[in-house]
Amino acid sequence: MNKLIGAVFGLALGFALAFGSFGQMVIVALFGAIGFAVAKVVAREIDLSPYVQGRRSNQ
């Protein structure tokens, strides 16, 4: 499954570079990385709870 995701992502970057500029390819790569991270959080493979919770007082 990871090979398929990598192949699709590489294909998308290739199309972005072929039909656009390098800057557009970087934007596609950035949004792909953001989408990948969001998918990992939704699938509960990455736990963000330590960063999202508020401060706890020691009193």
Written account of the structure:
- The mean pLDDT is 79.
- The protein starts with a helix and ends in a 7-residue tail after the last helix.
- α1 runs antiparallel to α2.
- It has 3 helices and no strands.
- It is elongated, with a radius of gyration of 17 Å.
- The chain is mainly alpha-helical and 59 residues long.
- 73% of the residues lie in helices and 0% in strands.
- The protein has one domain (2-52).
User: What is the chain-wise order of helices and strands?
Assistant: HHH
Number of domains: 1
Global shape: elongated
Helix content, binned percent? over 70%
The first-to-last residue Cα distance is: 49 Å
Query: How many separate helices?
Result: 3
